[in-house]
Amino acid sequence: MIAAGLMEPSGLIEQGGPLVWVLLGLAFVGAVCVVERLFFFHRARINVGDLLTGLSHHIRRRAFAEALHEAARAPGPVARVAHAALLRYYLPRADLRDVVQEAGQMEVPRIEKNIRAILGAALLAPLVGMLGTLVGMLETFQKVSEQGGFTGPAELSAGVFMALITSVIGLTVAVPLYLFYLYFLSRAKRLVHRLERAGIEMVHLIADAREEEEFAPFRGETTGHKKLVKPKKDPVK
């Protein structure tokens, strides 16, 4: 009967003590961060190849205004890096590379936002749970000593059960949060990698189109290599 009452949510919170509220707070913070990251990565899910292929059609026609408009409409960090490069399309190749690198560095904190908070909640939850268990065990043995060691098995087991509540809640909070942390960390690394590659592609596309050099089409295009031939000047007589 005691165990059945304690297994109810209200019983767990009441018998677990104030540290249960700390664990619930960590669970709430972790859940908010998880939802925010899920929404962010959902919005960032665009086909980078399709985006750059569409931009390359405008860039190779030197229609930078249309490319800028298309990059501004697309969501996600890759589109923002492309937009930053198109805003400075007139810069030399080296300076344009610096612009892309700076824009990518500005996107990294947005990509990694709240991931460390999820890890922090996942690491703190079992520690808080263990602390609650130790405090509960101390209180249980203190009651045993006050009664001169004459404590029935039922009372002792109930005290140990209540002491273990916080550890159970702590692990229940920590395990899913840590799994979400690993998932978001992997997504963030892949997105940063795509961001860097897209930035390099944008630099080459813009610089080659502006300088009218020979260049190969972006991956995924079906057109062959295109070479722009400059007209020969008449020799000076």
Textual characterization of the structure:
- The chain has 237 residues and is mainly α.
- The protein has a domain at 12-123 and 175-211.
- Helices cover 77% and strands 0% of the residues.
- It is built from nine helices and no strands.
- It has helices spanning 2-6, 9-16, 18-43, 48-60, 64-73, 77-87, 93-111, 115-146, 153-211.
- Helix 4 packs antiparallel against helix 5 (64-73).
- The longest helix is centred in the last third of the chain and has 59 residues, at 153-211.
- The model is unreliable at 1-6 and 218-233 (pLDDT under 50).
Short description:
The chain is an all-alpha fold.
List the keywords.
237 residues; mainly alpha; rod-shaped; disordered N terminus
Q: Average pLDDT across residues?
A: 80
* Main sheet overview: none
Rg, rounded, reads: 30 Å
One letter per element, helices H and strands E, the order comes to HHHHHHHHH
Please report which band the strand proportion falls in: under 5%, 5-15%, 15-25%, 25-35%, 35-45% or over 45%: under 5%
Overall geometric form: rod-shaped
Q: Specify the number of helices.
A: 9
Count every beta strand, where a strand is a DSSP E run of 2 or more residues.
Answer: 0
Structural class: mainly alpha
Tell me the layout of helices and strands.
Elements: H1 2-6, H2 9-16, H3 18-43, H4 48-60, H5 64-73, H6 77-87, H7 93-111, H8 115-146, H9 153-211
